[in-house]
Amino acid sequence: MFANFDDGYEWFGGTVNTKYLVAAFCGDDGFDYDQGFRGKGQFWFSINATDEAGRGGEHDGGDTDETGTPFSMPEIWNATYIGSGADLAPPPGGDGNNHAIIFRDNAGGMYANSIFTDFTGDAFSVEDLASGEDSRSRLETGDLQLRDNLMWNFGAGTTLEEIVPDEFVRSSPNFSGNEIADPLLGGIGRTGDQQLDPRPGASGPAGSASNLPPNDGFFTQANYKGAFAPTGPIWTEDWTALDQDLITNIQEMRNQGPEVPRGFIVTQNYPNPFNPGTSINFSVPSTQHVTLSVYNVMGQKIATLVDGVRAAGSYTVTWDASDLASGVYVYRLESGATVLTNKMTLLK
Fold first, then answer.
1. Does domain 265-346 have CATH number 3.90.700.10?
2. Three-state DSSP state, 109
3. Sequence spans of domains, the chain
């Protein structure tokens, strides 16, 4: 699903099993289930836009009758849910990207070996009602499980107490093996500049998995976390709008050792717009003197980020613009006769 007005996918009951699903830039939730859904899922990918968005997952057990059985209890492995941006202000319209996943109305289920990142709020919201007819009950009975997942870069904060605010969730034996750790995704982008690379780093915490999905004839025995393998082309290529619109279009291997760039490259800074910090990636094909500078729209130099000899390779530089006013700035990479420029927006 691509840029539709409502949820990317929604199941009202049933036991359908699915693999390789994409929900990109939907106006509401990426994945939504309800009314006793008990299917299996693997390699689910969701990425939100910055203007209007829901959660990665909105999961319900019922609607008018929350006590109705069977409860929703799907089994999901290897999902990657990317929000609208942890530092996005104001939040997007719609549900506002306030949770990576919300469980409510007696919804259960299981997520394992998955990645959740870049949401404006927290990671997991588990409904807790005085009646006890809620998803907290499903967690405490083992009908809801969150196991061996990675959480990273949330607007709610950087600690487990901030990202998972309910103590009954954090202390539950059915919330286990989860950690706050950078999955080292290749890049997060939402426009046609080929900057979206949702593959995790092979040497990072998502590059391996200690627990594998059941070997039941449906699940693939993926020994990594998230919807994409760390190396090789990604499975969205050649058939999705992400590829057609050049949001991804990635074919090369990754993390197979150092690779010498074929030419000078300076990518779009991320995040953009930003406040107050942002990162700029650049590559040089051979050892030489390089400068990377920032200018305002009047052509005045504001900052020098790099000024020295760099060996062939790829580099990342961060810039803190806390003391500057909102506006458009230009960054400029120079080496000999080569000059590359790009624009970025500081929005306070």
1. no
2. strand
3. 9-244, 265-346
Spatial CB neighbours of 61, under 8 Å, sequence gap ≥ 6: 34, 35, 36, 68, 71, 72, 104, 105, 106, 107, 108, 135, 138
Say if pTM beats, i.e. exceeds, 0.85.
Answer: no
Provide the residue-wise pLDDT of the chain in tens; the chain has 348 residues: 899 899 999 999 999 999 999 999 999 999 999 999 999 999 999 999 999 999 999 999 876 666 677 889 999 999 999 999 998 888 898 888 899 999 999 999 999 999 999 999 999 999 999 888 899 999 999 999 999 999 999 999 999 999 999 999 999 999 999 999 999 998 898 987 778 999 998 888 999 998 999 999 999 999 999 999 988 788 998 899 998 887 886 655 555 444 556 578 888 888 889 999 998 988 888 888 999 999 998 889 999 999 988 877 788 898 999 999 999 999 999 988 888 888 999 998
